[in-house]
Each structure stands twice: as structure tokens, then as C-alpha cells.
Amino acid sequence: MHWQTLASALFPQGHDITEQDQFLSGTAQAGGETDGGQTVAVIGTTGHAPIGIEIALAQAKAVLATVRGHPGRAIVMLVDTQGQRLRHRDEMLGINSYMAHLGKCVDLARRRGHKIVALVYDQALSGGFITSGLMADSCHALPAATIRVMGLPAMARITKVPEEVLTELARSNPVFAPGPENYLRMGGLQSIWDGDAGVLATRLAQALRDAPATDARAALGYQRGGRKLAHPVIQAILGGRHVQAA
Asked: Per the CATH hierarchy, to which homologous superfamily does domain 3-142+193-214 belong?
């Protein structure tokens, strides 16, 4: 879905979102007349944007501007990225530090009382997803979205595990498998927004109302059967108990 079509569906009351070099920013009216609506900040990417130092800084700047100029204003993050930009220039300039800075800015906004809701509307890969969608209070996706940390061929090359073995593992283990359904099982996604475009505004309004105050992804992954050990291990550490590996 093109970002302009998405924005019209998410914000039928209007928005002033603009695109510059695959970076999206602006404000919008979320919700409907019956629930009062609210002005939200919109920050995102489009065109399968590679996250280099420029976009990472632009996103961080937009987050900080919202924190500074509009205390408590909710932030909606629209995610479409192919992940970290793989260029020698970005690596030499320390792209990892720029992306860490973006993550810290998002965390600062959350600590200052800004609700942060992310929507993967096209593609979400690797570090570009970690510092945007996975940093939000809740992350959602459209059914046709492509989500993965690493493709199975690349995973096979790096881990030296045959691709056919990884393919077989992906059939039963969502950790190895791409797609929104598997990230939903693991707790990385709060929900998948299926249905026609007419319901997206309602889904967003509900997500803003119900954004969790604490990180419940490990518990969701445990409940949904996608991550069976993360939540028990966390609880054991918090309770000081010893955990026997399954």
C-alpha cells in the first residue's frame, strides 16, 4: 500500500504528512468525532527505505521535536524499510551509533509520557525495524507486510546451517520464519490489522487507547506459543529463582 493511500485511510479527518528522501513526517488527526480525536505526530519511512545516518538522524530529530514542543503527544510510526543501509560510508561513520541514538530518543519519548504506536504497512527488515517498530509501545502490521530479521539464505551463509535445515525449522518454529503471523506468535506484533482500508482508522484509535504501559512482548509470545522460554526466564530472574533449561 502506498503511504499516501495508507495515510488517507488512517487519518480520514486529515493530515499534513510529507515525504522527503523516503522519510515521512508530519501531524494528523487520529480517531473520530465520536471519541473526540487527537492530534498525533507521524514519523516513518517509505519506498523500502534503507536506514542510513541521514534518515536515522531525521527520525531522531522528529521524535525530539515532538517531546520538546508537544509534551505527551502520541507518536505514530509508519514502517517500510529494508533495514540498515549497507554502505562503507555509513559503517565508517558509525551507523550503529546513529541507530542506537534513534532508539534512545524513542525510549526518552516513552519515558516522558508519549504513547508510541507503530504500523508495518509494507516491509520491515533487520535493524531498521528494531529501532522503529520494535521500540514502540505496541507494533501492528497489515496482512501483506513483509517482516523478517534475516532471509533464510543469508542466515544459512552466516550460521553455516544448511538452508534446507533452516527451511524445515521455519515450518514449526516462528523464530526462523518470516511474515507477520510468525511475529504475532512471538509477541513482536500486538495484532494484525486485517479487513478493508475503511477499518484502519478505527484500529489505530483503539491501538492508541490500549497502548500498553509496560513491555508485554515476552508474555504475549509465551501465551501464543511462539516463544516458550523468554517469559519464564524473565520471571525467574525477577524472582531470583533458578530456571532449569527445557
From this structure: 2-enoyl-CoA Hydratase; Chain A, domain 1 (3.90.226.10)
